[in-house]
Amino acid sequence: MSRHNDNRIIIFDTTLRDGEQSPGCSMNLEEKLRMAYVLDQMGVDVIEAGFPVASPGDFEAVTEIAKTVKNATVCGLSRAKKADIEASADAIKPALKGSTGGGRIHTFISTSPLHMKYKLQMPPEDVLEAVRESVTFARKFTGDVEWSAEDGSRTEDDFLCRCVEAAIEAGATTINIPDTVGYAVPEEFGAKIAMLFERVPNIDKAIISTHCHNDLGLAVANSLAGVQAGARQVECTINGIGERAGNAALEEIVMAMRTRPDLMPYENNINTTMITKASRTLSTITGFAVQPNKAIVGANAFAHESGIHQDGMLKHKQTYEIMTPESVGLNESSLVLGKHSGRHAFRKKLEELGFELGDNALQEAFARFKRLADSKKEIFEDDLIALVEDEVAHGNEAIQFVSLHIVAGSEGPQTAELTLRVNGEKETAKVEGNGPVDAIFKAVRAIVPHPDARLQLYQVHAVTGGTDAQAEVTVRLEENGKTVNGQGADADTLVASARAYLHALNKLLRKREGFNPQTASEAVAP
Ligand code: KIV
Ligand code: ZN
Q1: Site residues for ligand 1, CB cut-off 6 Å
Q2: What confidence tens digit (pLDDT) does each residue in 146-156 have?
């Protein structure tokens, strides 16, 4: 038995794989690259970027992320099948070449009696052989191989020990024990990890990892129990997104360890001041709003409404505050530029915020910034981020917004006169609707018919405070089982709505035509 003495916890982020698997959370290449950039900057150790054999889109995403990520190890998921492992090996190749953080192949197979009998329909001895073969095969491509016992928390101890020992013997450097269906409770899950340290003779040759789902709301508690029992990698997602009730939330795990070093004296590489940015980037991309009372990243997580709490806070912050908003990057959005700021200052500010735009996109973004500065007294960092993300998203789309004129109010009919540029040609439609938003969306449909698409989500969010705040709108469209999210930002909520709808529609059309990584990757922020 050997428990790792090293107190460094490896943060393995699976937002782009397990997170993306949850309904409505699918992301295109450009969005995955944006998210991977933020995760890498934030300091996650491993980015699980996708399941390369699953689709050309997943393969492309893993490859592109492997090309661009600077520090994190990029990982591809594979079943215990040669074709899967080869696809992962091909996809992570750019990360194996050296200039980036390295590449990992993650291979898994179910080990619980229930899964072996009904899902795999394989006897345990065959599963054990598949563990050996898959890990041995994966090691031909990289020295960094992770093996997972799917449904590990419901696997019998004896068999789990045999599989873990075999996987390590075959060359696995990380052993992951998933609570696949979120069934475990913390004491039990911690005991499972401790049991492996007691019984598996070669356990000191690998890092033990947790991967907990949140079906009983215990994913974070189970992960921390696993760490306390000796696990040194935690698999998690931003905002806890993931299959069903989600995965363990990265921000909760990291902040629990930071806030209670007395009980959990562990270190990790996360720059916690980027947590809010990561959370917001993800919810903007997916349209999955974070519940207001969500720990760490919910809108109310640091709000003190009651008089007693406010009074206590004024006397001494620690009376009701166990961590500061600043520690998770929740600063008052800083005032950045004004009406008289020039192009040079604008470009410099964007660079500070992590955006490098080409000349045309920069020119257009600057013109929009000037228009915004005319209508809004103060421009904050969040305004610039929304504006530039909108510009990046809409830059070279086939259907582009040109202008909108709305008649709204209590004395209907509400009417939208919308002009779009469709493949370079201007087209206008004037349509009545049941309210201005309905009129706009009908006008888009009049210009570009798409009868099979259904609106699944329409969501408005104010970028900053004040009645002159920019609106950030998310629209989700569904067509024949495929869903896409679109975003738009503008000082005018209705213009932002039109832009968001068009963003989603452009994506839907690209999905119909097939995947084009070339155009997708050209449009991405660094
Ligand atoms: O939940 C799970 O078991 C998984 C594995 C593929 C690691 O996501
Ligand atoms: Zn999972």
Answers
A1: 18, 108, 148, 150, 176, 178, 180, 211, 213
A2: 999 999 999 99
